[in-house]
Specification:
By secondary structure, the protein is of the alpha/beta class. The chain is about 40% helix and about 10% strand. Strand 2, helix 6 and strand 3 form a beta-alpha-beta unit. The protein binds xylulose-1,5-bisphosphate and magnesium ion.
């Protein structure tokens, strides 16, 4: 029986990557006097690696091979990441990033239906609470029974660890939870934890491989702006994702 919905954050609850995380990284680089600049296409490539600290290291190894690491490199990355988190949460506090279509509606309906809500993400916990507070509701973080985020597990997505952690914390089994994801790394993580998964794509992830998803959708759909279903099983289906629809997919 379906008891809990576990949501990814970046790209799923809100389109945070291109106009949120990316400019926040760039602002931190400028603050530290670095000539690193991540434009929109480059950032798409960097998204192959989850986690901000991991992503900066990947950027250097892949795109700046001549960069000479200072003796305090790990410390510098940690400081840069702190600055990036500050820039990002400030941007959210200015109301910078709205939730994706249908997200708030589904969260409300799920709560009313008695489903448990949770988050499983690689982003920093402060970023999640700031998004929920500024883009959902003042008490938005309290809507979620578990917020599994950031470095609480050393192996980030695509490893299943963050979902496994969240499910354990809820005292549930994977057969009682449904994940909602937007990316290939995300679905590897959720499927790896044994979770049935619904995908809503975005511009960075539309060409990803979502084999194994229950359904692949343009978004969750709203009144007057239905989702488009994109996977072979339900091509051209349109609608709104509500609890009844999730339960029907979950039962397949
Ligand atoms: C998204 C990520 C994160 C963010 C940046 O994860 O990979 O690393 O891009 O956040 P998800 P941090 O889709 O699982 O939410 O800089 O805080 O890591
Ligand atoms: Mg994501």
């Amino acid at each position: 029986m379906l008891k809990a919905l576990l949501f990814d954050v970046d790209g799923t609850l809100a389109d945070t990557e291109r106009d949120g995380h990316r400019p926040a990284f760039n602002a931190a680089f400028r603050e530290f006097g670095l000539d690193w600049e991540w434009d929109v296409p480059l950032y798409g490539e960097l998204l192959a690696v989850t986690g901000g600290k991991e992503r900066m290291k990947y950027y250097l190894s892949r795109f700046r091979p001549d960069y000479e690491k200072p003796a305090n490199f790990e410390e510098m990355i940690a400081e840069l990441h702190k600055a990036k988190t500050r820039h990002y949460t400030e941007l959210l506090a200015q109301g910078g990033i709205p939730l994706r279509p249908g997200v708030e509606r589904l969260l409300r309906e799920a709560r009313e239906a008695g489903l448990i809500l949770g988050v499983a993400t690689t982003t920093t916990p402060e970023n999640v609470t700031a998004l929920l507070r500024h883009s959902l509701a003042e008490d938005g973080a309290d809507w979620f029974t578990v917020i599994a985020a950031g470095d609480i597990v050393p192996a980030k997505k695509p490893a299943p660890d963050i979902y496994v952690w969240a499910i354990r914390k809820l005292g549930l089994g994977p057969e009682e939870c449904l994940a909602i994801e937007d990316s290939e790394n995300g679905i590897h993580s959720s499927l790896g934890a044994g979770l049935k998964t619904v995908v809503t794509i975005n511009d960075y992830t539309r060409d990803h491989d979502f084999t194994g998803a229950l359904a692949v959708l343009s978004d969750l759909g709203e009144e007057g702006a239905p989702y488009r279903r994109l996977d072979a099983a339900g091509q051209d289906e349109r609608g709104r994702v509500d609890v009844a629809r999730l339960r029907a997919w979950f039962a397949l």
